[in-house]
Amino acid sequence: ETGVTQTPRHLVMGMTNKKSLKCEQHLGHNAMYWYKQSAKKPLELMFVYSLEERVENNSVPSRFSPECPNSSHLFLHLHTLQPEDSALYLCASSQDRSAGNTIYFGEGSWLTVV
Amino acid sequence: AQSVTQLDSQVPVFEEAPVELRCNYSSSVSVYLFWYVQYPNQGLQLLLKYLSGSTLVKGINGFEAEFNKSQTSFHLRKPSVHISDTAEYFCAVSDQVSGKSTFGDGTTLTVKP
Q1: B111 and B13 Cβ atoms separated by less than 8 Å
Q2: What is the pLDDT of residues B48-70, one digit of tens each?
Q3: What residues of chain B lie within 8 A of the CB of A100, using their CB?
Q4: Is A87 helix (H, G, I), strand (E, B) or coil?
Q5: What pairing do the DSSP bridges indicate for beta strands A10-13 and A109-113?
Q6: Do A99 and B96 touch (CB under 8 A)?
Q7: Per-residue pLDDT for A1 more than 60?
Q8: Strand locations in A1-94, DSSP E?
Q9: Which of A72, A96, B64, B78 is deepest in the core (most CB within 10 A)?
Q10: Among partner residues A42, A92, A100, which is closest to B32 by beta-carbon distance?
């Protein structure tokens, strides 16, 4: 059982669709993250939120839009994606952004853009 | 700046054999070190981490890793692997000042019967 829950687990969307990925953490953590994991590529950090404030945006295209309405929930809104955006999107959380904290990951949302 | 190099992209071993997954890092500041495991169709979970103290760190599922500061390495070992250890293993470092984490590319461990 994971303390970080992601929905949906699988999503297929067309390039003109708008969809959202949802993440909820049940650990009382203050920091939340979105990562992108593509085949044969390293894990890419996309966004970081600390106490519901976006603190890091790693040159992610504007077709990805994060939202953090409270410390337990994180969304990734998707709009006019490209086929190369197909990947596993991992949500994660940690107690805060201190260096020694363990990062807890959800099981991921598999996204296929057609 | 920091980087993590996992020296082997794939490691096939037979069941009950020992295994070592190698990780080297470079950083201009002090770092903490982590190993995460990702089983098929799951997210990553922590195996072990080194923050301070003894350089030999024991983790879950019988894994251990040794921090070698002079060689900037943090290799992961297990004396006898099981089929269930088949997974992707990620080495990661975390900047002690900024908290920024950097992950390696991953090593696929395949345990064969």
Answers
A1: yes
A2: 999 999 999 999 999 999 999 99
A3: 32, 49, 51, 94, 96
A4: strand
A5: parallel
A6: yes
A7: no
A8: 4-7, 10-13, 18-25, 31-37, 44-50, 53-57, 64-70, 73-79, 87-94
A9: B78
A10: A100
Tell me, what's the pLDDT at B13? 98
Structure tokens at A19: 């969809």
As a three-state string, the secondary structure of A12-38 is EECCCCEEEEEEEECCCCCEEEEEEEC
Residue of B nearest to A38 (CA): B105
Do residue A99 and residue B103 have CB atoms under 8 angstroms apart? no
Report CA A9 to chain centroid distance, whole Å: 12
Chain centroid, CA B2 distance in Å: 16
Note the pLDDT of residue A2.
65
| Class of residue A29 by CB neighbours under 10 A (exposed 0-12, middle 13-18, buried 19+) | buried
Q: What is the mean pLDDT of chain A?
A: 93
Q: From the centroid of its chain, how far is CA B9? A: 12
The angle formed by the CA atoms of residues B33, B39 and B43, to the nearest 5 degrees, is 70
Within 10 Å of residue B3's Cβ, how many Cβ atoms? Answer: 11
- A81: Cα separation from own chain's centroid: 15
pLDDT tens string B60-103: 999 999 999 999 999 999 999 999 999 999 999 999 988 889 99
**CA dist B21 → A53, A102, A106, B96, B102 (Å):** 37, 20, 24, 24, 17
